């Protein structure tokens, strides 16, 4: 009974935090809600007796969100307003959703297609950490490396995007000066 109540509590809190992350206009609120959502996700691992994965979730992902928080506050002027000029936002939303669904299907299909319990090398004398390492670096090595490369590309892209606008701060300029800078770019 405890597990069921805890699951529904953490599921509700996780969904609420991620909805705040998506729908808020304030960067501070979005990053704080993202960090809280990552911590709530770690609760699921603790409920499933996967203490190592729960701790990794807190340390790695929540630590990454805090680093993102720091970089977001340092590099971006959160006082300036950003006006997007997407000509067809519904098409962009639909294509993004389809691509995300395709990626999920590609990574989940090997798991669904096989009996997962029969293929996992679970050794009772080892701990949870060793079992995760064996599975991660044998069966899931390719997705693990792809995720590492994607994170590296995202980090480099973020640094490049942030460094392009480092010379001026929009909060210190007047409206006319901001309009002139935008026309130049």
Descriptive report:
It is an enzyme of class 7 (translocase). The protein is mainly α and 185 residues long. The chain folds into 2 domains: 75 residues, Up-down Bundle (Four Helix Bundle (Hemerythrin (Met), subunit A)), CATH 1.20.120; 100 residues, no CATH class. 76% of the residues lie in helices and 0% in strands. It is globular. The termini are far apart.
Q: Which characteristics define this entry?
A:
2 domains; quinone; 8 helices; Four Helix Bundle (Hemerythrin (Met), subunit A); about 180 residues; mainly alpha; membrane; about 75% helix; cell membrane
Show the helix and strand layout.
Blueprint: H1 2-23, H2 27-47, H3 51-75, H4 89-113, H5 116-119, H6 128-136, H7 141-164, H8 175-184
Helix pairs in contact: 1-2, 2-3
In short:
This protein is mostly helical. It has helices at 2-23, 27-47, 51-75, 89-113, 116-119, 128-136, 141-164, 175-184. The termini are far apart.
Query: Can you summarize the main beta sheet?
Result: none
List how many beta strands DSSP finds. Answer: 0
Which structural category fits the helices and strands?
A: mainly alpha
* Average pLDDT for all residues: 76
Low-confidence spans: none
- Mass-distribution shape: globular
